[in-house]
Amino acid sequence: MAVREEHRSILDEDEEEDEDEGSRHLSPLCDPRHLLHRILVLVFMCFLGFGSYFCYDNPAALQTQVIQDMSLNTASFMQLYAWYSWPNMFLCFLGGFLLDRVFGIRLGTVIFSLFVLIGQIIFAAGALANHFWLMNVGRFVFGIGGESLAVAQNTYAVNWFKGKELNLVFGLQLSMARLGSTVNMNVIGWVYGRIQSLTGSAGHSTLGITLMIAASTCLFSLTCALILGFLDRRAEKILKKEQGRTGEVIKLTDVKDFPFSLWLIFIICVAYYVAIFPFIGLGQVFFIEKFSFTTVQARAINSIVYIISAPASPLLGFLVDRTGRNVLWVLLAVVTTLLSHMMLAFTFWNPWIAMCLLGLSYSLLACALWPMVAFVVPEHQLGTAYGFMQSIQNLGLAVMSMAAGSLLDNKGYLFLEVFFIACLCMALLAVVLLYLYDYHTEGELNLSASTRAERLKAE
């Protein structure tokens, strides 16, 4: 019997050696362990969010047209952003849990991509039918998939690149996502104009056709999700990832055990982003009214945050990878953003200066903040942690988007800017507390890159 068991183990070892030998003969582009293959995966990973980000800011890029064609005021217009954010108060968290526990990363990503595509089609159909309530339904469905897709994208990044250029990868993902926003800001208005010239009149039909054309970018992202799922499944087989799993399973009750540092990261995320996205959503008219810009000039400066983010994010991510010190970089980003809003609120200096600073600081914060989640929670909780982070972020965005629209209608842009400055002061306080807590507990959030690498080797 012992001889038979020994013979069987020898056969198993031979089979493993054959598989290893076979994988060694793979070309670099097809070998999951090789840098070239990981770069190929990163390309599809980056384009995964292109369609979602392109369509997210369709209302901002077409603010004047949407308000005129659908006969809205500013508060009603901002409902298009609020209805995107409302479902994500809890669905991002649920989506992250489903990624970790139910669907798995591959199937979950495809499902969320489908929600994004279907939501954009409903949104466009609402404009075609001249039903604003249907447009809100479309944004709601779009939101179900949009933020959960971002959770999936973050989880993919950590699974493939943790310990290897993670900050750079987050920067590249942000860069490609913001490329989608930039293209939208500068192209979708032109598309609307071309359709208007072809049909001979503006109106809700022209708006609907424009939004339906935008849905093609969501179809592109769905294709990337399918290809990425295939490549991830193939890598799992070749690298035998299933054999190396710990068997730990995420439970919803694990949320109560999240470390204090993670909750501070959540607060920074919410307080910071509510001063970015609602401002961009309302920024076009702001620059027209305060600085007497033309519509074209206002559209250009309103998109500069995303334009700068596209090339700056990977460069800043590379810088954070090489230096470490994530908390200090986040602190710098928050302070710079605060200065930018103060310039826009209290001076008539050339707004291009403030907006360029805003673009750089926004890129820096995303590169330094989001990877920190992977340093404070175990791998089997990553989807849930990122989902919870985006759920809280969307709760803030949903409430603040409606508050911003109402504040603008009743008080004007100066009061709105003061409100954004107050939010950034809250983010600044949370960053300082995070630095002190991490220093006191000897955490790794603010370690240098070399010290962090030594800790990873020791583990």
Automatic annotation (TrEMBL):
GO terms for molecular function: transmembrane transporter activity. It is a multi-pass membrane protein. Residues 1-11 have a biased composition (Basic and acidic residues). CDD domains: MFS_MFSD1 (cd17340). Its main location: membrane. Gene3D superfamilies: MFS general substrate transporter like domains. InterPro entries: MFS, MFS_dom, MFS_trans_sf, MFSD1. It is found in: Lysosome membrane. SUPFAM superfamilies: MFS general substrate transporter. It holds the Pfam family MFS_1. Keywords: Lysosome, Membrane, Transmembrane, Transmembrane helix, Transport. It catalyses: L-alanyl-L-lysine(out) = L-alanyl-L-lysine(in); L-arginyl-glycine(out) = L-arginyl-glycine(in); L-aspartyl-L-lysine(out) = L-aspartyl-L-lysine(in); L-lysyl-glycine(out) = L-lysyl-glycine(in). PROSITE patterns: MFS (PS50850). Residues 12-21 have a biased composition (Acidic residues). GO terms for cellular component: lysosomal membrane. Residues 35-442 form the Major facilitator superfamily (MFS) profile domain. Residues 1-25 are annotated as: Disordered. The chain crosses the membrane at residues 35-54, 80-99, 111-133, 207-231, 260-280, 300-320, 327-346, 352-376, 388-408, 414-437. Lysosomal dipeptide uniporter that selectively exports lysine, arginine or histidine-containing dipeptides with a net positive charge from the lysosome lumen into the cytosol. Could play a role in a specific type of protein O-glycosylation indirectly regulating macrophages migration and tissue invasion. Also essential for liver homeostasis. Belongs to the major facilitator superfamily. Homodimer. Interacts with lysosomal protein GLMP (via lumenal domain); the interaction starts while both proteins are still in the endoplasmic reticulum and is required for stabilization of MFSD1 in lysosomes but has no direct effect on its targeting to lysosomes or transporter activity. This is Lysosomal dipeptide transporter MFSD1. It comes from Phoxinus phoxinus (Eurasian minnow).
